[in-house]
């Protein structure tokens, strides 16, 4: 039957996996994807509101708009590691829904503000509650999906974020045209009201459909058999407790340093795709204002294509290093074209759009990080948060030096910096691939079979799973009684 063939193509030939994955892909994955989409829309709402009357109404002066964004980014970066760590202690449903609802309400009450400092303060608080949106989702996805399944799901999640950023301006433009002056409210206030109203239902959707972690066996829409299968099919981490050994396990691990460094270099390399670099170049070549706004959106199209294609290939190979090498070479090729100052516009268009495909690490490298840390629950949580926080430490100041608006449209210094940072990813990819192969062969990486108690840590009086009621919260370090 065609439907059965489609189900096998989507979710594999194993009947238990198909039943489980089909439910996760219409609950867990859409929730995180929609939240990340709305995250992009929400952040773009501030820039739209600012140029649509908020600046004058609230008396923004000097660099106060920059202070608003900086306050948000600093708190956002600082809260990512604590946020992912919290997911190992509390049920994720409570963490995510509380964070999402609070973030949405903070966006809503922005329309009532009367001074710029109030919006700056709200943005700082919002940064803390929205910090879990990206890294937390990556952590949860890595807890439910196997190595052969994770890359594609991470790609879908990331693509929704790219769509949110790309379409945020269009949504705001539509709101400005249809709601300006309605009920006596200026257009910029309506932006915050509508964006908040869009986010709240999705946040509440999470209360119903977030399945927490597999070990919790809490998803009401999974059968008892599916709950057991979800809790056992990935195996169990070898390290699962918060104790003094966590510092040693994290700080002496290669994963904590190499993956975040590699991701940071990627983020620095692709700065030419941000900071309005292509738009400035288009303006210098005499393209119209409409073209200056429309042509750069092609970068998002190639980003979506690259993210999905590389993720699919890496899942099929059940290995990330091969596509990572291709991505690294793409960094070098695209940046080298820009450094060479092409004599035709076609060369620039090729470089910008080709480099768009290198947004793929947002899915592929987070999946790779999950692959090489799945043996240690706390290491995976902390490294997931640190990857993005470490990235922000550099991205916050890098464009000021290498892509300042004063260099427009000739960013040769920035292009050279991107060539160097892109090239530096290649040896790191090789080192990570080698260490992954070495530690897998040594039996260090990878989860233990669920019925192999010899490799598990002892955790006191709850080690006997017979004492646990399947309908209650199951601690993350408890073994199920039987495997499926």
Automatic annotation (TrEMBL):
Primary localization: membrane
Composition bias type Basic and acidic residues, residue spans: 454-465
GO process terms (BP): pantothenate import across plasma membrane
Localization of this protein: Membrane
Keyword terms: Membrane, Transmembrane, Transmembrane helix, Transport
GO MF term list: pantothenate transmembrane transporter activity
Disordered as annotated region, ranges: 452-484
Gene3D superfamilies in alphabetical order: MFS general substrate transporter like domains
Membrane topology: Multi-pass membrane protein
UniProt-listed InterPro entries: MFS (IPR011701), MFS_dom (IPR020846), MFS_trans_sf (IPR036259)
Annotated TM spans: 28-46, 66-87, 117-142, 154-175, 187-210, 256-274, 294-313, 325-342, 348-369, 381-403, 415-435
Protein name: Pantothenate transporter
Organism of this sequence: Penicillium malachiteum
């Amino acid at each position: 039957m065609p439907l059965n063939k489609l189900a096998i193509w989507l979710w594999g030939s194993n009947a238990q996996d198909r039943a489980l994955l089909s439910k996760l892909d219409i609950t867990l994955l859409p929730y995180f994807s929609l939240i990340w989409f709305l995250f992009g829309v929400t952040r773009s709402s501030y820039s739209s509101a600012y140029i649509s009357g908020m600046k004058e109404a609230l008396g923004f002066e000097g660099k106060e708009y920059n202070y608003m964004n900086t306050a948000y980014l600093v708190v956002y970066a600082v809260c990512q590691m604590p946020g992912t760590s919290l997911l190992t202690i509390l049920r994720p449903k409570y963490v995510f829904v509380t964070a999402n609802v609070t973030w949405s309400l903070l966006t809503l009450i922005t329309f009532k503000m009367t001074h710029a400092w109030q919006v700056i303060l709200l943005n700082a608080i919002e940064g803390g509650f929205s910090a879990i949106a990206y890294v937390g989702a990556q952590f949860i996805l890595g807890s439910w999906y196997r190595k052969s399944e994770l890359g594609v799901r991470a790609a879908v999640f990331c693509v929704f974020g790219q769509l949110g950023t790309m379409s945020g301006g269009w949504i705001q433009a539509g709101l400005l045209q249809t709601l300006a002056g309605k009920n006596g409210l200026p257009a910029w206030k309506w932006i915050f009201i509508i964006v908040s109203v869009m986010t709240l239902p999705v946040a509440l959707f999470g209360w119903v459909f977030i399945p927490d972690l597999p070990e919790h066996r809490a998803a009401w829409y999974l059968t008892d058999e599916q709950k057991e299968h979800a809790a056992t099919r990935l195996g169990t981490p070898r390290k699962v407790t918060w104790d003094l050994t966590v510092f040693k396990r994290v700080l002496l691990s290669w994963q904590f340093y190499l993956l975040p460094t590699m991701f940071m270099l990627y983020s620095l390399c692709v700065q030419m795709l941000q900071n309005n670099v292509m738009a400035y170049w288009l303006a210098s070549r005499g393209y119209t204002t409409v073209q200056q706004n429309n042509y750069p959106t092609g970068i998002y199209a190639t980003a979506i294509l690259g993210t999905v294609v590389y993720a699919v290939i890496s899942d099929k190979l059940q290995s990330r290093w091969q596509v990572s090498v291709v991505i690294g070479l793409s960094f070098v090729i695209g940046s080298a074209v820009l450094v060479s100052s092409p004599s035709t516009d076609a060369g620039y268009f090729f470089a910008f759009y080709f480099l768009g495909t290198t947004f793929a690490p947002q899915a592929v490298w987070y999946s790779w990080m999950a692959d090489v840390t799945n043996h240690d629950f706390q290491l995976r949580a902390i490294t997931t948060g640190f990857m993005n926080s470490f990235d922000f430490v550099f991205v916050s100041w890098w464009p000021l030096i290498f892509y300042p608006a004063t260099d427009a449209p000739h960013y040769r210094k920035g292009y050279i910096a991107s060539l160097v940072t892109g090239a530096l990813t290649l040896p790191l990819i090789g080192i990570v691939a080698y260490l992954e192969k070495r530690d897998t062969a040594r039996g260090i990486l990878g989860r233990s079979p669920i019925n192999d108690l010899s490799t598990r840590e002892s955790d006191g009086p709850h080690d006997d799973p017979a004492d646990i009621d399947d309908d209650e919260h199951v601690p993350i370090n408890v073994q199920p009684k039987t495997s499926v």
